[in-house]
Write a structure and sequence with these properties.
The protein is 39% helix and 15% strand. By secondary structure, it is an alpha/beta fold. Bound molecules: pyridoxal-5'-phosphate (PLP).
């Protein structure tokens, strides 16, 4: 209990308050109001407008990708990525069980089935070893060039690793495995804007990647998402499908496919542009907090999750790995009772009623982490 009281005191000192401390509050310290006013004055508040185009240019440049498609949120950016990856209702998509629900939900929107493989203990992201083992045991590459699940007979079309809490997964190894098996790689980089693997921004490794700008993410525009890619054909198709698949014409309303109303409104993009200008400063501020946590938790003997080797993390949500489930529950009770918000990591997708019959690989590390990991306050500090 002394460790827990010390933790509460340290967090209250660090955030300079004894009032309620949330897990992650947004920070609006730049041109948000200016750009919003400008957007309203222009009357272009919906999906046509200068800020949406500008946001797409900026997010592509920031992440080092060629094309970005602004979406209404990260979940439908994921849905769009899976659609243009040509995932079909009878297909399977390999992902991790230790993730936020949106990853598995987007796969289900297609009608495809998620297959869950384990994560690495240090990155908490999809384990390339687990992926390789799963494919070698359960998959076969057929003469058509595609990979099929030997047990279910279904095509394994895509793989969606997730960069948990902004810690990059071992993405270079995952790229190599997906190439070997001809599986489309979509990075769920919703949590990792501002995180780098071997000097390259996350999201630039896969065939496509998605980011989220929800209220609790590193930067936010209320609700928003982006799909990024270096592939021109995929980018064009995604842009077309997010805008109701309308054929370009000065006045005619004609559509050549079943499209979606997934394009980010200009109002949100105005805020997003202002937030992007502050992204580097916000990440530096969060990394400074993580450094303070690192020193403090080392001193009191708790295991604070740190960026894996060869990576630079945005420390979106800071995390502790506690001794066991009992200690975790005691910690959650103690801190939340004192107004310091903490939260356990997600229940594994494979334990939820809609996904419990999905194939998985035993999920050893995922089950271990599920019982022990908690998030602690991680907001920008002015
Ligand atoms: C936030 C998040 C998303 C997308 O969330 P939206 O709220 O739809 O923007 C997707 N995957 C993960 C892992 C996330 O954390």
């Amino acid at each position: 209990m002394e460790q827990f009281q010390d933790t509460v005191n340290f967090i209250q000192d660090t955030f300079k308050t004894e009032a309620f401390i949330p897990l992650h509050a947004p920070h609006f310290g730049g041109n948000e109001k200016k750009y919003l006013n400008d957007c309203i004055d222009s009357t272009f508040v919906s999906s046509v407008g200068e800020y949406v185009n500008l946001f797409e240019e900026k997010i592509a440049a920031y992440t080092g990708t060629k094309y970005a498609i602004a979406c209404v949120n990260g979940t439908n950016a994921l849905h769009m990525a899976l659609l243009v990856a040509n995932v079909k209702p009878e297909d399977e998509v390999v992902t991790q069980a230790l993730t936020f629900i949106a990853t598995a939900n987007a796969i289900s929107y297609i009608g495809a089935a998620p297959v869950f493989v384990d994560v690495d203990k240090d990155t908490m992201g999809l384990s390339p070893d687990a992926l390789k083992n799963f494919l070698e045991q359960h998959a076969v590459k057929k003469p058509d060039g595609f990979t099929y699940n030997k047990t279910t007979g279904k095509k394994i079309t895509a793989c969606v690793p997730m960069h948990t809490f902004g810690f990059p997964a071992r993405i270079d190894e995952i790229v190599a495995i997906c190439k070997t098996w001809n599986i489309v790689l979509i990075e769920d980089a919703a949590e990792s804007l501002g995180s780098y693997f071997k000097g390259k921004h996350t999201g630039g490794f896969g065939d496509m990647a998605v980011f989220s700008f929800n209220g609790n993410k590193t930067i936010t525009c209320g609700g928003g998402g982006a799909l990024v890619t270096n592939d021109e054909a995929l980018a064009k198709q995604a842009k077309h499908l997010t805008t109701q698949a309308k054929e370009p014409h000065r006045w005619k309303f004609r559509h050549d496919a079943i499209g979606y109303n997934y394009r980010m409104p200009n109002v949100n993009a105005a805020i997003a542009c202002a937030q992007l200008e502050q992204l580097d400063a916000i990440v530096e501020n969060k990394r400074d907090l993580a450094e303070k946590y690192t020193a403090f938790f080392k001193e009191i003997g708790l295991d604070f999750a740190q960026e894996p080797k060869d990576t630079k993390a945005n420390y979106w949500l800071n995390a502790l790995v506690l001794k066991d489930e009992k200690t975790r529950d005691a910690f959650l009770n103690f801190t939340n009772d004192q107004g310091v918000m903490t939260r356990p990591i997600w229940d594994l997708m494979s334990t939820l009623p809609m996904f419990e019959s999905c194939q998985h690989d035993g999920l050893k590390n995922s089950k271990w982490l599920e019982k022990r990991v908690v998030n602690i306050p991680s907001s920008y500090r002015p």
